[in-house]
């Protein structure tokens, strides 16, 4: 997470509720796009760690969009 600045970390905090919502929210698609950007910016270690942490708790829609191989 060293590659993420404070603004990125705040964005991550803000978008997680929309990703973990079981049925999704109107903001889930926006959250997916923002999360993809953060995963790229954070690098491969951050992306793999996020996948391990989130794959079981995010909504099915978000999981398929962010981690299609999971």
Please explain how this structure is put together:
This protein is mostly helical and 70 residues long. Helix content is 70%, strand content 0%. It has three helices and no strands. The longest helix has 27 residues, at 28-54. The chain is globular. The two termini are 22 Å apart.
Helix percent band: over 70%
Number of strands: 0
How many helix segments? 3
Arithmetic mean of pLDDT:
90
In whole angstroms, how far apart are the ends?
A: 22 Å
Overall shape: it is globular
Largest sheet: none
Structural class: mainly alpha
Low-confidence stretches: none
What is the H/E string?
HHH
What is the alpha-carbon Rg in Å?
11 Å
Question: Which band does the percent of strand residues land in?
Answer: under 5%
Q: Characteristics of this structure?
A:
70 residues, 3 helices, globular
């Amino acid at each position: 997470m060293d590659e993420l600045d404070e603004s990125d970390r705040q964005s991550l905090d803000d978008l997680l509720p929309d990703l973990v919502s079981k049925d999704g929210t109107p903001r889930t698609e926006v959250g997916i796009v923002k999360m993809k950007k953060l995963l790229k910016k954070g690098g491969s270690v951050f992306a793999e760690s996020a996948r391990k942490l989130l794959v079981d708790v995010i909504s099915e829609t978000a999981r398929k969009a962010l981690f299609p191989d999971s």
